[in-house]
């Protein structure tokens, strides 16, 4: 954290929606202080995956269905991404089969277009 925030708070202006630096002592806004936004990381530019994509990636990497459903670290990681991983192995398999069927149908339709 920058040392400037010991002396000023960052507040959002409700009208302009811009962030302002406000002095902790007197409460005045200093027009010369430029509030610097946190730089974005690569993750900010990537689209968030769907649960099905996460499960497919894990299975493609050779992680067993049992490990996907029972491993605490995998479950915690998926939950941090905002998803609820099914606890039942058959529900995880259903996600994998749905993805397989989607890709199979897409491939068949592309082949039909070319013939």
What does this structure look like?
- The chain is mainly alpha-helical and 115 residues long.
- The chain has two domains: 3-39, no CATH class; 44-114, no CATH class.
- It contains five helices and two strands; from the N terminus they run E-E-H-H-H-H-H.
- The chain has helices at 42-45, 51-60, 65-70, 72-80, 89-114; strands at 8-12, 19-23.
- The chain has a two-stranded antiparallel sheet with strand order 1-2.
- It is elongated and about 70 Å long.
- The termini are far apart.
- The relative contact order is 0.09.
- The mean pLDDT is 80.
Helix-strand topology string: EEHHHHH
Main beta-sheet annotation:
2 strands, antiparallel
Strand order of the largest sheet: 1-2
Average predicted local confidence, pLDDT? 80
Shape: elongated
Q: Give the DSSP E fraction (strand runs of 2 or more residues).
A: 5-15%
Number of strands: 2
Give the helix proportion (percent range). 40-55%
Distance between the termini: 61 Å
CA radius of gyration is: 24 Å
Q: How many domains?
A: 2
Helix count, DSSP H or I runs of 4 or more residues:
5
Structural classification:
mainly alpha
Low-confidence stretches: none
The assembly state of the depicted protein chains is: single chain
